[in-house]
Input
Amino acid sequence: MDLSLTIPSSNQHVELANPVFTASGTFGFGTDHSDATEMTYLGAIVTKTTTLNPRFGNPQPRIAETSSGMLNSIGLQNPGLEAVISDKAPSWTDIEVPIFVSIAAEDAAEFAYMAERLSTVAGVTGIELNLSCPNVAGGLDFSTDPKLASQVVEKVRKVTPLPIIAKLTPNVTNIIPIAQAVENAGANALALTNTLLGTAIDIERQKPILSTIFGGLSGPAIKPVVLAAVYKVAEFARVPIIGIGGIRTGADAIEFMLAGAAAVQIGTGNFLDPETPRKVIQEIQEYMSQHNINKLSDIIGGARR
Ligand SMILES: Cc1cc2nc3c(=O)[nH]c(=O)nc-3n(C[C@H](O)[C@H](O)[C@H](O)COP(=O)(O)O)c2cc1C
Output
């Protein structure tokens, strides 16, 4: 059975053995397993989002459970770019799984600086741009605005030959023009989506649970919303779409692929059971044999035909 996926790039295509990634912020830096071979079954790993300078993240509480999902307001806690390069990157060359480093920055120039720096680091397969973070100049999240989002991709495109995944927020009225803008600016894949804005109230304290009041909703609760975004964007997209939202089973992944995704990422599912990605891959293979599918990519967009 062929589960492979190619992410095209300007001058170096990336071949993945299968289309199942771990999502940013839910699998650390891919360095937590003492035995690197434990991860070789994964299609790819996306690291926790890294910023130029270290961040401590938001005050506790920054996690709340909700029906069929969870809210988080971690606030991009990370050790900063140089610490990631010196402490985490050396083990990426031992892991036989492609590593996409997720980055967030305060403006387009900072994104470009980070991407260029990472392009010289061994073991980095590609860059995922976390465009769901605020642009300091105006406070808006980059991917709520086609112009802001595409400026970032354009600047990053100029400084790196590595494949660029543009990860978008679902918290917009219409995601299509934003997806088109980042694609036209040179993104090699679109990751749909980050978390949905949400909140939860503690009725005993009569206060919001999260210290930041609002957080990002993830898990099965968001799956239909993200699936709709994937379905809509797939009508126009010329680059692979990576679906991310509530995927826990092979059936969930197949739904995303039939809607038009070429690959999937698993986030909250890793917290429920760290074996979720392995299970998803196995269940995809079972589906393929039950339906006589030799090449998984043949089903991409199948529900749209
Ligand atoms: C605890 C937690 C931390 C996250 N941190 C990041 C992050 O650093 N960067 C990012 O792009 N997305 C982050 N995400 C979002 C996930 O990568 C993913 O887009 C989202 O959770 C939807 O997928 P899921 O429903 O499978 O969790 C985080 C999600 C969770 C639950």
Q: What stands out?
A: The two ends are 23 Å apart (CA to CA). The chain has a mean pLDDT of 95. Residues 276-290 form the longest helix (15 residues). The chain is about 30% helix and 20% strand.
